[in-house]
User: What shape does this take?
Amino acid sequence: MNEIFTRVSIRKYQDKPVEDEKITQLLRAAMAAPSAGNQQPWEFFVVKDKEKIARLSEISPYAACAKNAPLVIVPCYRTKGLRWGETALIDLSCATENLLLEIDSLGLGGVWLCAAPLEDRMEKAEAVLGIGEDLRAFAVVPVGYPAEEKSQQDRFEESRVHYL
Assistant: This one.
């Protein structure tokens, strides 16, 4: 799985839409993630509306890059009916990482913009999406064809590995 070693955060996008079949593939990859007790607490909002994308780009000082993306995916989690609700953020982290790896695999670019667990960011994203209390916004992930090239850093540090 080469994408683990090539995926980078892309914040600049070409003015070119992402094809529907690629969007479906991204969502399939995200939903293939493991989850505690197989509870699959995720819901995904696919945002193509430019006005909503502009508003999502304002949820934090770091989200401005979303404004020019042709597509934003907002992973959310359910708060009701979960056997282990406290693991929902972990489950969504796995789903979001799968999403990012598939973005790279399909020749697209994207970046994970944090919403959860920061309440103000979550509330701003939820207001844009018009979702109620049974769903919480986890992240904002702009997606598009990259308009920048980057290479991944090698983050391996032997000193952080402990053999027992």
Remarks:
- The chain has one domain: 11-147.
- The mean pLDDT is 96.
- The first strand starts at residue 42 and ends at 47.
